[in-house]
Write a structure and sequence with these properties.
Blueprint: E1 4-12, H1 28-51, E2 58-62, H2 64-70, H3 73-96, H4 101-123, H5 128-137, E3 141-146, H6 159-177, E4 184-185, H7 196-201, E5 206-209, H8 211-215, E6 229-230, E7 236-239, H9 242-249, H10 268-271, H11 274-277, H12 309-338, E8 343-349, H13 360-373, E9 378-380, H14 383-389, H15 420-437, H16 443-459, H17 462-470, H18 474-497, H19 502-511, E10 544-548, H20 559-573, E11 577-583, E12 591-594, E13 597-602, H21 612-633, E14 640-644, H22 649-659, E15 663-666, H23 671-675, H24 681-696, E16 699-702, H25 705-715, E17 722-724, E18 755-759, H26 768-781, E19 786-790, H27 796-805, E20 812-816, H28 820-829, E21 832-835, H29 844-851, E22 855-859, H30 862-867, E23 875-877, H31 882-894, H32 896-908, H33 915-931
Helix pairs in contact: 1-4, 1-5, 1-13, 3-4, 12-13, 15-16, 15-18, 16-18, 16-19, 17-18, 20-33, 21-22, 22-24, 26-31
Amino acid sequence: MPKGYLNLVLHAHLPFVRHVDRADRLEERWLFEAITETYIPLLQCMHRLLEDGVDFGMTVSLSPTLISMLADPLLQSRYEKHIDNLIRLADSEIVRTRTDGAMNQLARTYRERFQEIRAFYHIYKGNLLRAFGELQQAGKVELITSAATHAFLPYVRTDEALRVQIATAVDVFRAHFGDGPQGIWLPECAYTSRVDRFLGEFGIRYFFVDTHGLTTASPEPVFGTFAPVLTPRGIAAFARDEESSRQVWSSEHGYPGDFDYREYYRDIGYDLDTSYIAPYIHPDGIRVNTGMKYYKITGHDHHKELYNFDHAREKAAIHAGNFLFNRGQQVEFVQGKMGRKPIITAPYDAELFGHWWFEGPIFIDILFRKMHYDQSTVKAITPSEYLDLYEDFQECELSMSTWGRDGFGDVWLNGSNDWIYPALHDCETRMVRLAGRIDHPGDIQRRALNQAARELMLAESSDWAFIMDSKTTVDYAVRRTKHHVNRFRALAKMIEDDQIDERYLVELEGMDNLFPHMRYEIYRNPRHHVRSRKNWGDGQRPLRVLMLSWEFPPMTVGGLARHVYDLSRHLVARGCEVHVVTTAIGDYPLDELVEGVHVHRVQVLQPDGGEFVHFAFQLNLMMLDRCRKLIGDEGYKFDLIHAHDWLVCQVATTLKKTYNIPLISTVHATEHGRNAGIHTDVQRHIHHLEWQLTYESRRVIVCSTYMQREIERIFSLPWDKIDVLPNGVDRKLLQPPDLDGVLSKEPYARQDEPMVVFIGRLVQEKGVQFLLSAVPSVLCEFPRARFVILGKGPYQGELMAQSARLGISDHVTFTGFAPDDTRNRILCAADVAVFPSVYEPFGIVALEAMAAGTSVVVADVGGLSDIVQHDHNGLKVYPHDPESLAEQLKRLLRDKEFAKRLSAAAEEELVRFDWMQIAGNTIRLYEKIVGSTHGLSAEERPLQTPVVNV
């Protein structure tokens, strides 16, 4: 059993240095050198550890700007040329040094190294984010984020702009890795208490500070830096351990300065004649590092001896052993005094390992192997794992601090760079004003607002101020700051004058193309968008909504979970306070903040077949108990209750009557519609609960005109009690994490094989049986076609048997449940998405297919009929009709250009289904209901205490 833990943290960041205008910009080499010398060597190291079964754990922060560049097809293709050029250089060096045995062997080793790096790059098709993601999925690496453009957060003036840096970072991370990050690397470890509430809002559990950031806290931390402390808002702060930092960071006293290690400053890009090295350096003759360095540090004078890979590896092993021994000594010294196992936090810039300290990845590899075979004293751990070990952490107030010179902000604000802040602060204020003024922009106006946000954020990067202070590439940093500020100002003026130059906008969108799913609305001050209710005694507080739903991610059975998740977080983005009470699942917290949404989970046994109605009854009891505590014990005053579907009918109606809180409900589907009538006692019970919920609700929301007609008819609801608000689609969630030009269809189909995809629950009303009946006809014309059925459900066995009877099993794949990243990737890669439902209140998955750029074929039923216009943005088929379905599928597979035209038309119309717009319409409905309480009697108005005991 270990006596303590090592928390190794690597922060990987580069500023956004993508330059679309030229392929030979020196600054892009920063990225290419980091990929070659740091990112791939570290990934190779960690993947080897994983393959060898070594138990290791570490944290890697990937800044959003770095993520954006690693995922960029242009930069991926340019890096390919860069590594190919290095291999050609190594080949040339083998020839040049053929008469010098030792140097020739070094050249051969470099060539082998470059070839392995290229091979690794090709395995992941240029997208290294997939390699990082695999390590996270294996549970060995905890990936975290940093602020969106690495802004120096204490010097961001407005709360809105500070919030955007956190919100965008979380959005980018989720888009590429599926889930939100557990932690964040605050740029330059610069902490200010202003960030706390935004970290909490977006579900961040922890961050890192420099040593003095913790030791100067109030009260003084009882465990020093050997345990995290909590801020007043409950966010954990881990502090850098000085001793472990000094042993690695210091070039004089630390390991990297050892004489057997490779000398960074002797590179053949500078050492060799220009006539020879010219093809491998900058086209203008500017000398650059090539990464081929033949000498070791040797000593402090100019004399350098040849580098020896084997000797350097031996020294790295010695240093890894020494590092582990010293951490063991620290743990032994403090462990008995703490009453818990200490944690030693060792954070470093990732680029130290491999780029500056060539042997750094070897050091990490050997360190983890040594810990694996001797876990008696120190074991590797991630911050999240350590936080889960204990429940009681000391709460402290932390002062502003950084890990920069003298521990504060002097590096980023001094005579060399102070001129940038008046401009940045003016732009911030202007951006907030623009975002608050424009509620419903047109397409070009929205694009201009989003691009203005990108330009402002790029100008805020801490890298430019750092470069100005360090006197390195100062002209470049000054130029970048001015360019982004001026671009922002130009766009802001166009927006204010309502005269947007689209050619200029397109040019900027091509140059500064990071954060493709940027939403300018997050710059809004919520106070500007939530009207106060004069009849309520709490002034300007946000509209507070209690939302009830048995599903909420990751508890996902159907489309309800996605709907409630998207609606609730966009309501928060528009200024509401939303509390969702839902079902507990797995080890997820019973109470947490998910993108600003307060989620409260209740524990109840999961449904099992015929026990589902009993499960729903138990769920209502547990939800009622939790809501009573929220309202009574915790003092929340809810303006209204929003209930989703019959499963929460009893708790919703009880709360309405007990506390006199207005109730609205959303009916997503009906038991009558699912079963083409009511036939059994269980169906009659559910049907009655659906009716009761609509009867007790002040307003009833449905997602389509079809559903409006259905509930008018079967529940005898007056038409003016119903509001039609469509489901929405969040396009950024439909982008797969490996957008690299051609999307892979594997493992379900080869690239040249037509792929048809269905996504949904496997129940009779989804109509998959008719799709299977259509497959033989499609195969007659397209014998290599593949059909992928993503989803699970009670009908799966019968569908698989049908597939076998038809002799099409070799062409049909049932995937079962697929995680969002797999689901989205396959949806984007498909040639056609098909939804042959016989009952479909809305059909959000058809919207998702459209957002993914995939052409759709749908049955002409329910809400699908509202979404798809035949031959315009998709194709419709007769329900229950395999022949009609087969013919429309073949039309799309025959004519690729026709399919593209349908997809393009579909994508243009998705603005109707924008969640921010839907959230705005929902808020207007909420306010209409809340405002209507003004005319109620005293007995009918919302109370602070219950009318009766429940």
